[in-house]
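Feature request, filed as a ticket because there's no other form

It would be nice if the structure record came with a short human-readable summary line next to the tokens. Right now we just get the raw output. Example of a typical job, pasted below so the devs can see what we mean:
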Amino acid sequence: MGPTKKRARFVSGVLMALFIALLGRLLELQVLDRGELAQKASSQYDRKVPVPAPRGRILDRCDRALALSERGYDLCFYPNQEGDPRRVALDVARALGVPLESIEERFLPLSANPYHKRYIARALTADDASAVCGLGYAWLKLEPRESRVYPFGASAGWMLGFVGAEGHGMAGAELAFERELSGVEGWYLATKDGRGCEVALAGTGCPPSSGEDVKLTVDLAVQRILERELEAACRQWSASGAAAVAMDPWTGEILGMASWPTFDPSQPSAAPKGARDRTIGFVYEPGSTFKVVTISAVLEEGVFALTDMIDCGGGRFTYLRHTISDVHGYGRLSVENAIVNSSNVAAAKMGLALGSEKLYRYVSGFGFGEATGIELPGEERGILRPLSQWSKLSPAVIPYGYEVGVTPLQMARATCAVATDGSLPTPTLRLGAVGDSKRVISPETARKVREALLGVVRAGTGRNAAVAGYSVAGKTGTAHKAGPGGYTDTYIGSFVGFAPADNPKVVVMVMIDEPKGAHYGGTVAGPVFSRIMTQLLAYMKVSPDEGADLGGEGELPTTVVAGDAAAAASAAQAVADCPERRPGVVVLAAAQTKDGAIVVPSLVGLSARDAVKMVNAVGLAVRVWGAGLVSSQSPLPGETLLPGGFVELKCRPPVESVAHARGGK
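Raw output as currently delivered:
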């Protein structure tokens, strides 16, 4: 065989081998690796686009939407298009009404992935999305998304929490009820066209499933009352913060929880530095409000009776070389008067007589040192050291609120036990949820404690917390704040109480942190409690106590009540129910006008009680001077006020006829 034939055979063999290798490779690509390669190719052009599910609404107990989802849009930019991206950036900035500098860099070429889709703006409104669509640029695309909206701004912000960029709850009720609110995400298939833009494939996908609504026990009207009064108090006393809780003592339902400074859930990054929800996340030594637990324990154990006398030593008591002092130098006080006058010496002697073991059992039994069980995340447990870590001084100082740390919610919850029949409820935020309750003292002991707390407001340190026309029971608290090197010269003033005392409808806790100019709880927190409680009782339409004095030298604090759609009917019924209504009194039925205003009724000639009842019924505020019959009012009958405005009444004894008071003949 010649050299030529050998070369030909060699070349033919090489070609045959290459052909066989090529066939093998084709077999591998077309048959063996077909599925994997097809998936890789599809991933470059097709993708499964998620469609977020609308979150459920968060409602208050009156079905007001505190948080809801609205359709928004994300604006996307595809750089691999013809034209000048700077011109696109300028037009988009004008359409959205934003500075060019804030978005210009997102349109410029990038060294890595120059053709990758970029997000220009997120959560655009429908109007902004329409403005962008009107530009007509092919390289701009809008992707739908769900935006979280909080219609009432910062109201209940700490309680509601917020959602993150991916639409998941990050704090507050948004996180606590994430499972119910989140829903099920949908999807659709999209492919890239020749210019790199994504195009949805018709007939492919799965629609999202909306989340469930969550209804809270909170009443927005109550919440706003708490927030408004807290802000006013903090500004008055230049306080660093404050908290207030309103709850139903029988069920444990939270009617309102407010913390100042406030928090806007739509702008979580703008929250003040160091701000927090003080109702559940702020631990402090309660001071004398804790004496509610002390007197409950000694009465329940039979160590003391309300009438037993305690020697207060002129306001000073030295125990283990530690001097316990009172603001005033009291001598001998009954147990009841010791609470009325907030004697630390008496409380210390009560604790020593009770003993460490029993005191610890009652303090822990009232729920201190453990979370209350409310649904919100981030709740602090407070501070209650194990009995083994108590010093010999502990049973003397814990009874008046030192060496123990509480949250405002814990203090409100403990007060619910003495406001009712001795049962400690579990606070709940979700309407319809039934929390456990446990008995910590007997109904008889709770009744005796209420008697003492009534005296605190009537004649003791809590006189500034009184509410005209209602029996109020409560306790003041003033405590030094602890710092790194010991106690500082700053204070926390607080007041916790309930009304009406014989059948409580609501417990309110007020805490003012670091007030300036004054620091006693009766001075800084008592008036706040009074204003809050007055408004709540009016809003809840709780009738004044029989025989209560609505006038006198003082005034009935302003009550602000949300408008009532049935104002006219309520007003007519209120007047019909007035047993003392005199002949010739003409009452203009109150009603709401088209702009939401309320027509002021005629009140001259009515008794102060009946006038208050009528004004409360139609959803207006009321301020009363004097006692007896209404002699003048402002505004005049027939004028209009927006809900939240108040009517000013002047009263005097019925020495003149109603006709004369009205200017009749």
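Something like this underneath would help us a lot:
The domain at 567-661 is CATH 3.30.10.20 (Trypsin Inhibitor V; Chain A).
Confidence is low (pLDDT under 50) at residues 550-592, 655-665.
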